[in-house]
Amino acid sequence: ALREIFLTKRDIIVISAACMPVNAGISDFRTSSGNKTSSRHLFDINTYNSDEPTSDSHRLIREISLWASRAKPTFFHYYLNDLAKDLRLLRLYDQNVDSLSFHTMVPALWARTVALHGRLDTAICQQCGYHATFIPEQFCGKKPPWFKMGKRSRSVGFLRPKVLLYGESSPDESEITDAFKHDLRQPVDAVIIVGTRLLIPSLRRFVERLCQEAKSEGRESITMWVNKEPPKLARRSSPSSITKSLEIVTVLLVTERGGMKIMANLLH
């Protein structure tokens, strides 16, 4: 039934998070570092204020980079790529940093992707904002690699992975905001939320408005929530929470490793 429904949809937006890389063979960074608290500490902007946290953060980043380099796009990535080639995918908002959506094997998907939390295949200079290719071997030990561009010795900064850290604003905030505003003006007939509980307020507000717009003016739209557990936002939020504003939310409990293949088969 889902397959037939989605065949009629021409303007689709997808918001994705953790379940896509996990199904591609990339470990959840929270499990690799022990627990959620420790992983949050390692992805905090204050990590770079002392040597030991910087060293631990570099180790974790190298591990994630290694997993990502060995991973392959999932069936769902290819399904989204097909949607992009058919000009049916308006946008993929990706909360993952593994850059799988930018993989050269899925070029149509790459062009439609907004990386909300940054990209692990890119490094950025904290002094001037210059972008460079992320080289894992450079990020070892207690000090980040220094970066010097041009002949002026005074303009020296250090490189860090272009990954959004706790306690900082996104360097791409203006571009992301522009994408949000643009997509809210588009005629959307399908919204798929994959592997995220939408705990970030700005993203949650955007998705809430997006789904409201999709269901306005009598449109025959569908909003679908795909996650390992049902959404928990209702008990965290006010009565105008996203779970109520969506009117109808389809929840698929994707728990097995092949869950994204099942998801793709349902839709394709």
Automatic annotation (TrEMBL):
Transferase is among the record's keywords: yes
SUPFAM superfamilies named among the record's database cross-references: DHS-like NAD/FAD-binding domain
Any matching Pfam family: SIR2
This protein's UniProt keywords: NAD, Transferase
PROSITE patterns: SIRTUIN (PS50305)
Coiled-coil region: none
GO cellular component, one term: mating-type region heterochromatin
Lineage top rank: taxon: Eukaryota
GO MF entries: histone deacetylase activity, NAD-dependent; NAD+ binding
GO biological process: negative regulation of transcription by RNA polymerase II; pericentric heterochromatin formation; regulation of DNA repair; replication-born double-strand break repair via sister chromatid exchange
Record flagged with keyword Transferase: yes
Domain Deacetylase sirtuin-type stretches: 1-261
InterPro entries in alphabetical order: DHS-like_NAD/FAD-binding_dom, NAD-dep_sirtuin_deacylases, Sirtuin, Sirtuin_cat_small_dom_sf, Ssirtuin_cat_dom
PANTHER family: NAD-DEPENDENT HISTONE DEACETYLASE HST4, NAD-DEPENDENT PROTEIN DEACYLASE SIRTUIN-5, MITOCHONDRIAL-RELATED
Family note: Belongs to the sirtuin family. Class I subfamily.
Name used for this protein in its record: DHS-like NAD/FAD-binding domain-containing protein
Species the sequence originates in: Zopfia rhizophila CBS 207.26
